[in-house]
Amino acid sequence: MSTIRLTMAQALVRALAAQKTVIDGETLPLFAGVWAIFGHGNVAGLGEALHGIRDRLPTYRAHNEQAMAHSAIAFAKASRRRRMMAVTSSIGPGATNMVTAAAVAHVNRLPLLLLPGDVFAGRRPDPVLQQIEDFGDGTISANDCFKPVSRYFDRLTRPEQLIPAFERTIAVLTDPAECGPVTLALCQDVQTEAYDYPASFFRERIWRPRRTRPDEGELAEAVALLKAAKKPFVVTGGGVLFSEAESALAQFCEAHGLPAGETQAGKSTLPAAHKLNLGAIGVTGTGAANALAEEADVVLAVGTRLQDFTTGSRTLFNPDCRIIGLNVQPFDAGKHGALPLICDAKAGLAELDAALAGHRAPQAWSAKAEAARADWLKAAEAHTAPGNQPLPSDAQVIGAVQRWSEPSDVVVCAAGGLPGELHKLWQPGAAGGYHMEYGYSCMGYEIAGGLGVKMADPSREVVVMVGDGSYLMMNSEIATSIMLGLKLTIVVLDNRGFGCINRLQNATGGASFNNLLADARHETLPEIDFAAHAASLGALAQKVAGVAELEAALKASRSHARTSVIVIDTDPLISTGDGGHWWDVAVPEVSARAEVKAARERYDAALKQRA
């Protein structure tokens, strides 16, 4: 057997570089690169190995470990899970900084390879710098934090362990059903140890998406339900995009007269102009989608995990409604007592379409959907139009960005009040034009995520919409975007605090407290100059005084060669009242506040509506 003597770290990166995929007939590296912040736990071993292969596997330097993992996650999502990236940190805080990002990838079913440094396998120098010591378990390290947020976890304590661990790693990262983060904790002494690896370990391998076809029995049951339905409805999730099934979905809905609502991850699966696309569904849904979803007798849920925002905490669909869960993952397909249809979205829709040939939903139901859509678009236009109030609403800022945007643009967001407003109001121009991290709703994802989206497709204009709270949590990758020459347009909406949670606090009867800066404990309120801060990181930055100035600044930003940051003050109290649905946020049973008591009464009444 032919062998090659390499350190474990050298073998790992060489194996990563050998993995390929084919997209639109072009063979590309499966791993587009490695994000790295070096420390004593990875610089000597993995750092040396990455330097030696930098012409085949690029290394990118970031400014924050969590942020670089967010960029890798966004890259994978924008690449529809067809390509991915690895991230490496030292042991200790560098590693634990990435745990939050691992959770983001885990919740959103996205491939991410985490390569944190670890303690010495030999243990002779214990305790090493940054080592976590468990008084009762000598095998524990800080990297055990990754176990609950990894689809596969391994700690490499011998160099030859890389071979089976790597095989399992790639299998998980490329499997449509198991896909999620993988953590290979790399003991720092083992990174540098040599082994005679079989040459076959570095053989080029091409990975293509697996398209699982539906079981005949499950398919027949699903077809029978859809044929018998008087008011069928489709819920589209992110799995449609991962399967590249958006055209199949549009044709399916059109052929059978099926209205559809989109989850946060599924938004942009249907063309915004499609007459049966009723837009967002659930807690942050449109009035059109939610009205028909409430009446539906059969729901075909395609590629969605049916989280509480989609189902209105299990109150949106009527108790007699039957759900068909079309999903590659059995865990998701069977939720809510659904009839599972376990298959790839594209393959499953094709077989459903063939089996339903000539069948259409009742014309009155399709017509009702089209009328509801028209009514909602009028309401949305009113909310996004410029107003006369002193400070614009989030919706009015969204309207300005929408009017400036082009069909190929991508809007990126993650947390706060903006996801709800964007879900209802944004009209994507093309598939993938709406990039929302709302599975984990991770503050700080926005700017780093925008960078990953831009890396996935530099030809598309990427606009990041972010609140002042998220900006303050994580903004360092503005500097990384400048360093890499990857231009973003970032719109910062400053409502001087956590406006979304302040509104929720008030809605549950609480007094405004500790959310808006003015309501938090303070001696002096900070006057934060976001434009000056962004400029100090290398961006072209300005603050605008209203929607008209915002539109002018956006127009100018399109011609800029580097990242632009535009800051605008917004009203923290205004949100779009139309649309939406109840969300289960528990209210105290006992309180001295009359407002809380009233909110509890409303909460108890709402609970009785749960199916």
Automatic annotation (TrEMBL):
Gene Ontology molecular-function annotations: 3D-(3,5/4)-trihydroxycyclohexane-1,2-dione hydrolase activity; acetolactate synthase activity; flavin adenine dinucleotide binding; magnesium ion binding; thiamine pyrophosphate binding
Thiamine pyrophosphate enzyme central domain sequence ranges: 219-352
Keyword Lipoprotein: no
Superkingdom: Bacteria
The protein's Enzyme Commission number: 3.7.1.22
GO biological process, any: inositol catabolic process
UniProtKB keywords: Hydrolase, Thiamine pyrophosphate
Every Thiamine pyrophosphate enzyme TPP-binding domain range: 417-568
InterPro entries for this protein: DHS-like_NAD/FAD-binding_dom (IPR029035), Myo_inos_IolD (IPR030817), THDP-binding (IPR029061), Thiamin_PyroP_enz_cen_dom (IPR012000), Thiamin_PyroP_enz_TPP-bd_dom (IPR012001), TPP-bd_CS (IPR000399), TPP_enz (IPR045229), TPP_enzyme_TPP-bd (IPR011766)
Residue stretches making up the Thiamine pyrophosphate enzyme N-terminal TPP-binding domain: 52-131
Enzyme type, top EC level: hydrolase
Matches recorded under CDD domains: TPP_IolD (cd02003), TPP_PYR_POX_like (cd07035)
Signal sequence interval, chain numbering: none
A cellular component term, taken from the record's GO annotations: acetolactate synthase complex
Pfam families membership: TPP_enzyme_C (PF02775), TPP_enzyme_M (PF00205), TPP_enzyme_N (PF02776)
PANTHER family for this protein: 3D-(3,5_4)-TRIHYDROXYCYCLOHEXANE-1,2-DIONE HYDROLASE, THIAMINE PYROPHOSPHATE ENZYMES
Family listed: Belongs to the TPP enzyme family.
Classification via NCBIfam families: myo_inos_iolD
UniProt name for this protein: 3D-(3,5/4)-trihydroxycyclohexane-1,2-dione acylhydrolase (Decyclizing)
Species of provenance: Bosea caraganae
Gene symbol of the encoding locus: iolD
